[in-house]
């Protein structure tokens, strides 16, 4: 019998990070009304049930296939519940005889390209709707956002740390800024948090790190119709008063008119050496018995933005 479990919040976040790199567009969206098993492969009786999706789910279908028994399966890229997005990569059985929800978008075929007229009917918004979406200012929702970084000590000990307080905005002209309150660093060990705040980040002099960027509204225009797109975002990262320009591959997701997500498509490596933190690393190492600490950290994030009130 296939193993089953309800995915925990931690499991969902891990799945989100694992799936963040996919840049494929949804073939169509499927409303899933009942609790549904998510399988690792579309094979009746052999696949492993890796999670249970809750009811009232709107799922992004990336691919469609059928198993030897003729059962149709959908591969999901992500799903939303109550305007919150969860990235996944797994298969669900298509509901037998399921119809599109009343008033919802028409479902285009996956086995071949949809006729131009059908694609136009699905994708074209009402007059002015797209313009209204891109004319909004957006504010970062800290409760739905995450920024993690990984540290490596002794060459092999890998630990994940996070920042708990983020703020930011995206203006209608594409100007974006995210502030990271460095005091909010959380490693799971109080004394290590204190050492990182004062020895590594020097929060008394540099309380925040900042990320600034300019997003070209025309370059991301397809996100309105496709709901999800890959984008190479040039940003300026400033830590301890030192700025560095980098390009960050991101996935931008439109989760309705009231929620936009900007997530790392792959981990972004940040070097302490680039931001004048070598001495801080040495002090951290000395404080714990001169163990080695790798100066580079992979960073991952998912930033949720809501319309500015």
TrEMBL record:
Domain called Lipid/polyisoprenoid-binding YceI-like: residue spans: 137-306
Organism, scientific name: Jiella pacifica
Gene3D superfamilies: Lipid/polyisoprenoid-binding, YceI-like
Listed InterPro entries: Lipid/polyisoprenoid-bd_YceI, TTHA0802/YceI-like_sf
Name of this chain's protein: Lipid/polyisoprenoid-binding YceI-like domain-containing protein
Organism domain of life: Bacteria
Coiled coil, from the record: none
Lineage: Bacteria, Pseudomonadati, Pseudomonadota, Alphaproteobacteria, Hyphomicrobiales
Keyword flag Protein biosynthesis: no
Keywords recorded for this protein, A-Z: Signal
Annotated signal sequence range: 1-25
């Amino acid at each position: 019998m296939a193993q089953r479990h309800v995915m925990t919040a931690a499991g969902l976040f891990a799945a989100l990070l694992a799936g963040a790199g996919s840049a494929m567009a949804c073939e169509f969206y499927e409303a899933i009304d009942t609790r549904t098993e998510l399988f690792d492969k579309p094979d009746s009786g052999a696949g492993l049930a890796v999670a249970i999706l809750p009811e009232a789910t709107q799922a992004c279908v990336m691919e469609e296939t059928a198993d030897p028994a003729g059962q149709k399966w959908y591969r999901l890229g992500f799903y939303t519940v109550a305007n919150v997005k969860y990235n996944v990569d797994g298969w669900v059985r298509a509901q037998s005889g399921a119809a599109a929800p009343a008033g919802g978008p028409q479902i285009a075929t996956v086995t071949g390209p949809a006729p131009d007229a059908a694609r136009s009917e699905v994708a074209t918004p009402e007059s002015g709707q797209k313009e209204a979406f891109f004319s909004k200012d957006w504010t970062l929702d800290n409760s739905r956002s995450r920024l993690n970084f990984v540290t490596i000590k002794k060459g092999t000990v890998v630990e994940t740390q996070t920042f708990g307080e983020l703020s930011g905005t995206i203006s209608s002209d594409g100007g974006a800024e995210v502030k990271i309150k460095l005091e909010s660093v959380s490693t799971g060990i109080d004394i290590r948090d204190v050492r990182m705040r004062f020895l590594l980040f020097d929060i008394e002099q540099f309380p925040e790190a900042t990320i600034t960027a300019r997003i070209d509204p025309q370059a991301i225009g397809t996100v309105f119709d496709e709901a999800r797109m890959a984008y190479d975002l040039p940003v300026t990262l400033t830590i301890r008063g030192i700025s560095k320009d980098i390009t960050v591959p991101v996935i931008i997701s439109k989760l309705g008119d009231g929620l936009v997500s900007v997530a790392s498509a792959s981990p972004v490596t940040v070097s302490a050496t680039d931001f004048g933190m070598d001495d801080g690393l040495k002090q951290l190492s000395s404080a714990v018995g001169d163990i080695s600490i790798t100066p580079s950290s992979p960073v991952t994030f998912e930033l949720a933005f809501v319309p500015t009130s």
